[in-house]
Predict the structure of GNAT family N-acetyltransferase.
Amino acid sequence: MRTRTATRADLPVLREFEQGIIAAERPFDPTLRPDPISYYDLGELIDSDRAEVVVVLDGDLIVGSGYAKYKGSDPYVAPAEHAFLGFMFVRPEYRGCGVNQLVVAALTEWARQRGFSELRLRVYADNTGAIRAYEKAGFQEHLIEMRRELTLE
């Protein structure tokens, strides 16, 4: 398997992956609107010089994806900017085969070449499979975001 930078020709597959991500995350997030929804402007990410979208190929088949993009940090923390990772998807039949590791390695290299000293990502607290994959890639839990629904009287 190998990685490469995504192109606009990959958009049909990448849009399928996006819907796969949404379907996988629905059980973890009751705030998601009903379908159809979209998380990303994938074409804009592919075209941006401030982002990198990568795919993992097994032969000619795209089996995984992810992106890294410049993101400003909160004004009171260092570093001022970090590389934010998202759009991490692996075809179900390829999970556990190191595809996510290849995505993270490619995006880590992209971030290093641009002088970033930190990578960040978000994952649902109950998504234990994803958490294990990210911990395996060297990520550590940093901050927990909490929410509470209010009933309107």
In short: Residues 55 and 65 are 4 Å apart (CA to CA). DSSP finds four helices and five strands in the chain. The chain has one domain: 2-136. The domain at 2-136 is CATH 3.40.630.30 (Aminopeptidase).
